[in-house]
């Protein structure tokens, strides 16, 4: 048995000292995914952090990688 939560387990997140809530349904638990965005025609790569609402699956995007330490 692991003491660590599974990554797929939804949990609340805080962004800029404010708890994240779904703008659609008001739910407060999300699955987090870090996504690399490829811009076509450019060498620029960027990371985005997306939070997927555990209730309605609406995706809330933030550019840049989140510091969850
Ligand atoms: Zn939602």
Name the helicity range.
Answer: under 10%
**SSE sequence, one letter per element:** EEEEE
Tell me the structural class.
mainly beta
Tally of DSSP helical segments:
0
Q: Give the strand tally.
A: 5
Low-confidence stretches: none
Largest sheet: 3 strands, antiparallel
Ligand inventory reads: zinc ion
Please indicate the percent range of residues in DSSP E strands (runs of 2 or more).
35-45%
Backbone CA Rg? 14 Å
Major sheet: arrangement of strands = 3-4-5
In short:
The chain has strands at residues 14-15, 18-19, 30-38, 45-53, 59-63. By secondary structure, the chain is mainly beta.
Question: If you had to describe this structure to a student in words, what would you say it looks like?
Answer:
This protein is mainly beta and 69 residues long. It has one domain. It is built from no helices and five strands. The strands form two sheets. Strands 3-4-5 form a three-stranded antiparallel sheet, with no helix packed on it. Strands 1-2 form a two-stranded antiparallel sheet. Strand 1 and strand 2 form a beta hairpin. The protein is elongated, with a radius of gyration of 14 Å. 7% of the residues are buried. The structure holds zinc ion. The site of zinc ion (ZN) has 8 residues, from loops.
């Amino acid at each position: 048995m692991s003491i660590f939560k599974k990554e797929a387990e939804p949990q609340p997140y805080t962004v800029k000292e404010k708890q994240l809530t779904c703008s659609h349904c008001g739910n407060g638990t999300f699955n987090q995914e870090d996504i690399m965005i490829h811009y076509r025609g450019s060498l620029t790569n960027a990371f985005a952090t997306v939070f997927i609402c555990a209730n309605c699956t609406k995706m809330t995007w933030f550019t840049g990688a989140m510091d969850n330490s």
